[in-house]
Amino acid sequence: MSPKITTELLKQLRQVMKSPKYVREPVQAYIVPSGDAHQSEYIAPCDCRRAFISGFDGSAGTAIVTEQHAAMWTDGRYFLQAAHQMDNNWTLMKMGLKDTPTQEDWLVSVLPEGSKVGVDPFIIPADQWKRMSKALRSAGHDLVPIKENLVDTIWTDCPQRPCKPLLTLDLSYTGVSWRDKIVALRSKMSERKVLWFVVTALDEVAWLFNLRGSDVEYNPVFFAYAVIGMNTIRLFIDGDRMMDPAVREHLQLDSTLEPEFKIQVMPYGSILSELQAVGASLSPKEKVWLSDKASYALTEAIPKAYRYLTPYTPICIAKAVKNGSETEGMRRAHIKDAVALCELFNWLEKEVVPKGTVTEIIAADKAEEFRSQQKDFVELSFATISSTGPNGAIIHYKPVPETNRTLSVNEIYLLDSGAQYKDGTTDVTRTMHFGTPSAYEKECFTYVLKGHIAVSAAIFPNGTKGHLLDSFARSALWDCGLDYLHGTGHGVGSFLNVHEGPCGISYKTFADEPLEAGMIVSDEPGYYEDGSFGIRIENVVLVIPAETKYNFKSRGSLTFEPLTLVPIQTKMIDVNLLTQKECNWVNDYHQKCREVIGAELERQGRHEALQWLIRETEPLIRVQ
Amino acid sequence: MSPKITTELLKQLRQVMKSPKYVREPVQAYIVPSGDAHQSEYIAPCDCRRAFISGFDGSAGTAIVTEQHAAMWTDGRYFLQAAHQMDNNWTLMKMGLKDTPTQEDWLVSVLPEGSKVGVDPFIIPADQWKRMSKALRSAGHDLVPIKENLVDTIWTDCPQRPCKPLLTLDLSYTGVSWRDKIVALRSKMSERKVLWFVVTALDEVAWLFNLRGSDVEYNPVFFAYAVIGMNTIRLFIDGDRMMDPAVREHLQLDSTLEPEFKIQVMPYGSILSELQAVGASLSPKEKVWLSDKASYALTEAIPKAYRYLTPYTPICIAKAVKNGSETEGMRRAHIKDAVALCELFNWLEKEVVPKGTVTEIIAADKAEEFRSQQKDFVELSFATISSTGPNGAIIHYKPVPETNRTLSVNEIYLLDSGAQYKDGTTDVTRTMHFGTPSAYEKECFTYVLKGHIAVSAAIFPNGTKGHLLDSFARSALWDCGLDYLHGTGHGVGSFLNVHEGPCGISYKTFADEPLEAGMIVSDEPGYYEDGSFGIRIENVVLVIPAETKYNFKSRGSLTFEPLTLVPIQTKMIDVNLLTQKECNWVNDYHQKCREVIGAELERQGRHEALQWLIRETEPLIRVQ
Predict the structure, then answer these.
(1) How confident is the model at residue B510 (pLDDT cuts 50, 70, 90)?
(2) Cβ contacts (< 8 Å) between B550 and chain A: which residues?
(3) Are the Cβ atoms of A475 and B458 closer than 8 angstroms?
(4) What tens digit of pLDDT does each residue of A454-465 get?
(5) Which residues of chain A lie closer than 8 angstroms to B467, CB-CB?
(6) How far apart are CA A90 and CA A105, in angstroms?
(7) pLDDT exceeding 90 applies to what percent of chain A?
(8) Which of the four CATH numbers 3.40.50.300, 3.10.180.10, 3.40.630.10, 3.90.230.10 does domain A324-616 have?
């Protein structure tokens, strides 16, 4: 990996920073955040501006270029990678280390008095703008929005913004029509006394209209905004995608409709001017609802007195609670996904043990191959983490030729993978050994399993927030002085983003919404030993009502039902460390895997994988 | 309980709200918060202004008086009490109910355009001022500070501000001299690059100078402020308390000292002008450190650019970590406290069972009597909660003649009590039955006990925040659909306030600081059945290092050691619901009670109580 030479690019960027063609007044610094105009976690190639200007293409990082300096802020996961990918023009700012200045402090320390700092107002979220602007102003500088993205002006071979065909989802997948979703949204708007709602997150647009796209890898979304009024629906989207008869039919663009359900299709780029027109039309007490993570540009289009900002939008919250059709779809997707993994693990056992020719990349490709054989498979839901031995300890590992390791009978293998099917999204991690695990490896695996079970079997009152369950996942590890440095679970979309809000299970205190029946999250404790191995056991679980002996204040209780039905390798379990209750949980889980996945393997005529499943789901016996 | 007639008082208040003698311009509304100038939890009678003006004397409530209205905001604990204590002049605003307006919204709805709303700037914390001021301003009104408290101007028989003698604590109690505390504080100030630190909380002043007072009931504090510079120490305190030779000697007021340790004593009332002088003397980049909960008046004395505000002060954090002398003192205090409770419970068994003449008040008084016989007893640390049967379900119950119930062999009795000794502060809850508890009562008690043990025996990494342990206390209750609606634990002072920051164990997400070895918190899960009974099991526990098999990232682990050593009534335990590990915990705990408290009962010649202790600490036997 040799660094990208950026001398010429930086020279060009510094020129446009002073060019009256792009800036009203010269800016002495320009901020290049990662991220797109929708605050997406995964971004399209045309939005990888920070990677283009610096060479550093990790998932998190912010570049700032001044007349003299170029600096890159990123976190511990990427110190090494950033150092490798960037040339000497760049200073690496290691976030999380004590002596690393914040972006604001650094700017104040290097800028001449009364400087202007530019940023693309579409890329920076409103709350970040506010913080940075305040810090700069108090030091005598100004943060200024620059409409045209300055990196784009010098990015001559910038890829086109993707504009791929759309997929329409009918009621059998979504359970609720887009019309009914609009009705429900408008009722939430009435409750909060807002007249307009602006949809800025890509998965929220996709969910609202029961459409899917493929503009961004792994996320079945498409570039669009929507503005919903009490009597109007405006969809901002580019390309000839609205010419597709199936889409026109789905959105009833050519039907005679009640005016409040008539969708006005507008160019993607006209969102700002349209929103400004809305902002200008408001009377006192009329409000516009936006996510507080919406871009500064869109937020500013609405005068401050008229804004109604919330951390989670009503769509985000409605989307998180899956209806019957979505839940059934997720079940089907997880059954198909389990079939693919049974095939894979059976194949691995046959290949790894005697031949030793399977690498991490080959295993990942094989997993994709088996998944792609399943009905309604669309794509993977994230880059497969296929890691053996020490690579397993790198939590966000993705095998590349430079690091690619061969699976063997001597090392633990960790596979974290998932797919998008038309009926649901999967995300599953299994950790296994193809030879004989050491007592220590089994011990650690068993603590992780105990944590997994503690969350999965937890019963808790309605209204409980996920972060209150996080310690259950760690307790067995903590007892022995062990831990893992990531959260325990995230929300999972229904044929949508594999990571979604507003709920999760984490020690980090974020403003998560309470868990409700119908929500779907992951349960994925782990243990990682640097340089040796990684262990993680992940199921996707559905929040369901729990039957309890009593019912305090008639609140009702909740628990989880695993949707993922893939055997947990019993060879890795030290049965004597399990309680009888935990042992029963494993046996019940495996019984269900055998019944449900076994029937599907049978149906698909996958007899060898079925034999593997039966072997792997033999009950554990605990010696008292 | 008949309501206080406030017609005349409100008339007078409305007059002074317009009187040029007190207000520059008339105010159309006046806010009367509960609380004093130090944001204390417990306040002196002279600070009970809200109770004086309204009649409502619960611990939480805010009164707002306009020309037409008088309204009182309080929470669910006090709806009934407030309704009883206030006359028809007042509207009760039930906080937490959906339709109850916030104070800001209500003000906006009732005030004429362009109104002024007055408040005492010494009583309102700066963060509350900011929020209210912003809301009022955006509706065209103004929040204005009124220096003279308007309630005080009409409170003709207002009690004097207490000014009781001080108690000096020597090194054997405090472990660290006040000089060394000043040195440590200045080092924290250097680290954060601040030149001044303003001590506003009463317990922080007391801790810093190793002094105690009795100006506020239950809290051994005295009215004072301090301003610490890098070379100066200013103590703002009234009365002839500084004439006491012991205090002069302790503070070395008459010694020749290095100038940076010379304490300048100034009048309590001069804090504002002195702080304004400090504020006016600052050069750019010179900062003054204040709690973000300090009063608006003091915060405003420092120009905004010079303020350094934190939720927890360095004194608050240092005070929470007890040193060896403090820990030993806390141990001694808890041994004495346990002796008193063994005497009490032995006495109760003798009195309640055959005679049935003991009321909640008699039991509380008897508890105080036994405590007062112990060495270095000062006072109670809070109003004793002595409650039987349905009264036990009222979480903040305090027996009064109207509610006073007689203890019997048919009801559960809950006693939550504690004391201030010169060497430490105690807080303990025991729940017991003098007859035969029902199977259901035992079941509930046992779930609470399991939660208590789960916290007490928890092992967790250094750096863990207390709120991550809260669910451990609830898990056994949750499994059966039960719960309790309060936090699990609070910090406890060392011969200081029984509730102190910055740590605690609660499902409420507050900005708690991580637990460290030496911190002391309570562990007090409960279960309450309205109209029937209350159960709570509370120990004060010390955070100590834990030995673990492994040591991930060399972080080290922590656990708790109970300081409270009072038997937990085994009659209330359903042994079959305990695991063997839990059963062992109870037996080990009781063994320690027997050894440590038994020896002290022996030493004090309290033979009958010793016999009771031995009976009550018989080991549990679990039938497998």
Answers:
(1) low
(2) 480-482
(3) yes
(4) 999 999 999 999
(5) 509
(6) 18
(7) 93
(8) 3.90.230.10
